[in-house]
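pinned: reference chain
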Amino acid sequence: MTELLLLIAGILAGAVNSLAGGGSFIMMPALIFAGVPPVLANASNTYAALPGYVSGAWGFWPSIRAHRGVLLPYSAAALVFGWLGAELLLVVTEEQFAVVVPWLMLLAVGLFAFGGKVSAVLQGRGAVVLWVFLAAVCTYGGFFNAGLGILLLAFLATAGMTDIHAMNGLKLWISALVAAVAVVRFALAGSIVWYHGTIGLVGVTIGGYAAARLAHLVPVRALRWAIIAYGLAMTVWFFSRL
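pinned: its structure tokens
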């Protein structure tokens, strides 16, 4: 039953990531329900999400290539600060992370719901603020994967981008690099539960592919509200465990 739960959660998470983002709201709680400790569940969730980011970035490569000028600096920021975020996770105890998780979930749901307002507030604040924003987002992504895509879209909008295909492509490219470097660090530290994480990974890959093929049939607005409601329910559940 545990394997089936993780596979179904992975399929749902992959589909949600393809359609609107927010799949970590499904995958990470499923890993915790399966008995994986919170810090390991967070690291394993990043591992499970990685193939979806890579395949998505590959699919958007023509749009990404059109922004070659920012590709190198954005990639460097993703690698450096994604690693820093992973390092931060590894110095937190299970008990400390269990206390932090509900607040991170609440933050992630809030960013998912109000990401557009975040970018509007930061719009035109200057290059330094922009790079600090990207560094903070990549550090957050290395530490806690949920909500990373929403933050990256907010950053790209703040950077003045308007082409949604290019934004989605760069979002997935940066997410892939943040996740890849974090997974390497977690693997070196022995913080990934490979068995449970790989079942989730298989599900995420299946769900992401299927959703991409059927995206035109899904009302994205309704899905977005369903993700927010689910994320809030999981946040309440995590708070109830404190």
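why pinned: Residues 94-122 form the longest helix (29 residues). The CA atoms of residues 10 and 80 lie 28 Å apart.
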